[in-house]
Every structure is written in C-alpha cells, then in structure tokens.
Design goal:
Cytidine Deaminase, domain 2; 3 helices; 30% helix
Length: 103
C-alpha cells in the first residue's frame, strides 16, 4: 500500500495467531478517508482473511499529529473489534517513514 503526504489513505495488515502476515488491504483512499471508512467493512475484510490480529495504519492531511479524536476512534475500534473477536495489535498514524502508535 502506498501512502504519501498528499492523499489520506487507510490500510490494514492482517496477522494470524502467531503474528505471521496473512494479508495487507488498502481500505480507503482520498479526503477524510478515516472518517468515511465503516468499521463493519474493516472487520468483515479481516474475517475473510481469517485474521486473529489486525494493525490499522493511516495518514492524515495534517501530518503526524495525534488528537483527542484519534484516541476516541481507537477506543471505538477496540470495542468494535471485540464484537468480531478480532484483536487490535496496533493503530498507527503514519507520515513517511515515521509513525505514532495510539494503541
């Protein structure tokens, strides 16, 4: 998945129980990509890959910053993941080669 500073993108890495990579999925690209993604869609894709863990990664138009909205989204993401019996391994905001983990 290609992430650049010009366009917002959201992707997911799916892992099995032994932390082995089983899939990488680009979920959405474009303005406000994170706000427009549905968690049901995210988790159904993870279930199709038979993921035990997922890592969510996204970049934001305002760069490598963490806001209270990011922490609220992370809490929501973790609660939703429980419904699907999938564990969130990490939630990353990415900018170039730098990232911030908010999980």
């Amino acid at each position: 998945m290609k992430i650049d500073g010009e366009e917002e993108a959201v992707g997911m890495i799916a892992l099995d129980r032994d932390d082995r990579l089983i899939g990488v999925v680009e979920l959405m690209r474009g303005g406000d990509a994170l706000q427009n993604i549905g968690t049901d869609d995210l988790f159904y894709k993870a279930l199709r890959l038979e993921a035990y863990y997922i890592i969510l990664g996204y970049n934001k138009a305002d760069g490598l910053k963490v806001s209270s909205d990011d922490y609220e989204f992370n809490e929501f993401l973790v609660e939703e993941a429980k419904k699907f019996r999938i564990k969130i391994k990490d939630n990353l905001i990415i900018s170039g080669r730098d990232y911030i983990s908010i999980n």
